[in-house]
Design brief:
single chain, 296 residues, alpha+beta, Helix Hairpins, SH3 type barrels, 50% helix, elongated
Amino acid sequence: MTLLNDAWLDVIKQRAPRVLFDVAAAAISILVWRTLTSHMIVKATVQTRVAQAREDQTRTMAGVLYSVGVVIIVLVAILMILPEFGFDITPVAAAAGLFSLALGFGGQYLVRDIINGFFVIFEDQYGVGDIIKLNGETGRVEHITLRRTVLRNSQGAIVTVPNGLVGQVANLSRDWSQYFLDVTIPSEVGVPQALAVLEKCAKELRDDPAWSPLLIDGPNVLGVESLALTGTTLRVQFRSAPTRNDDVARELRRRILLEVERAGIKLVSANRVVLSGPEGPSAISPQTSGKSQGGQ
């Protein structure tokens, strides 16, 4: 009995320092990993829905990374400790390799979604509340996870896109939006007169306290954009707050219509062409007429 106890004491004296070192290394690694992942959380400085959603997303991502990291660290520590007690870890390592290989083949799309979702959130490509254009769909981001992005499009439909399919993304809610507004006048109308009307409308909109907060730059009258038989096209450009360009454009159009009426300027409109033939009169639009001429 004494010899057996002495043998165990010798084993403990030889193995305990290495085991304690492995356990301590694992514990320190977990603490360091916890600190690193906690720094990834973007805390909401302003209590808004978007800021709170951003904090929840980063907190979820940090929690997932922390859990995965802890599992990996514990498994590595166990594999390092087992040989100290005489266990052969070769079969365990081989089985783990086969399992990970099978999991990789079976869940490759899920893994791709999660990895791509991680980079979407980490790089802040878009967040909840942003208006984005993704895979041909334009809508407001309703929800983001590591696996999917949920949009609500202009028809009110919910569109779910796996993050693995996220490629080129156009974020329409960042910094500012730009808009080009074209006005076509008949060829007989003087360009200087029309440009003066547009300059007046642009200045009034810039000076209007109800609309100036929405404007980042402009409106600026750029000048003649194109010449055609139907008339001369003039272009106005402005930059507005994100997603407010349509509102500003509608107001600018309204002011232009009122001002051109006061100035007696007629804008170019579609003409109705009536053709008379053996089968009687028929009305066609200019577009239809152009196609018929092309066919002849």
